[in-house]
Amino acid sequence: MVHSFKGMVPELGLEAKRFQQSNLGAPPFAPTVAQLIRNAIEKAPVLLNATASYLKPRLVTFCYYAKVELVPPSPTEIPRAIEILRKIITSARTGSFKNLTVKEALLNSLIATKVCVWFYVGEIIGKGGIVGYNV
Questions:
Q1: How far apart are CA 53 and CA 128, in angstroms?
Q2: Closest C-alpha to 69, from 135, 114, 116, 102
Q3: In the chain, where does DSSP find H-type helix?
Q4: Which of 11, 24, 59, 111 has a CA that sits 20 to 30 A from residue 122's CA?
Q5: Spatial contact of 133 and 116, defined as CB atoms under 8 Å apart
Q6: Cβ atoms of 91 and 104 closer than 8 Å
Q7: 100: pLDDT confidence band, cut at 50, 70 and 90?
Q8: Are 22 and 28 within 8 A, CB to CB?
Q9: Measured between alpha carbons, how far is 7 from 113 in angstroms, rounded to an integer?
Q10: In the 8-state DSSP scheme, what is residue 78?
Q11: What are the sequence ranges of the domains in the chain?
Q12: Which residues contact 1 (CB under 8 A, 6 or more apart)?
């Protein structure tokens, strides 16, 4: 049985027919490297302005939180931190940590993970490379 695919295959456009008929390696409508560079240079200011307008509010938010969160502890915060550490040690000794809610336990484990990760990041930065760590 012979099938006819005549109505099922779309006709090729004029540019594609020219490409098929030409002996060149690229279609005649393909942009040259010079055209690509010219287009990139023409569109660069628009792209940079869009990037700047996108990043400006996010950078303001980052700077706000960086000023608040990335400062060393003040002398008034050190005794409070020591008291919190004492509570943690006593809860480990007495077993009262078993009475934490799931949310509190998850939060405590995330904070401990964060401290460990920043410790290793500091070690890697101080050492000058990641070689020698079992990552």
A1: 35
A2: 114
A3: 14-21, 33-69, 77-94, 102-127
A4: 59
A5: no
A6: no
A7: confident
A8: yes
A9: 64
A10: H
A11: 13-71, 74-135
A12: none
Least confident of 21-35, 54-68, 82-96: 21-35
List the structure tokens of 112: 């401990």
**HSE (side-chain half, CA atoms, 13 Å) at 133:** 14
Tokens of 103: 């949310």
User: Residue 116 — φ and ψ, nearest 5°?
Assistant: -65, -45
Q: Per-residue pLDDT averaged across 35-49, rounded? A: 90
Torsion sign, CA atoms 71, 119, 58, 43: positive
Residue that the structure tokens 């943690």 belong to: 88
- pLDDT value, residue 117: 94
Structure tokens at 38: 């010219």
Which among 12, 40, 17, 39 is positioned nearest to 28, based on CA atoms?
17
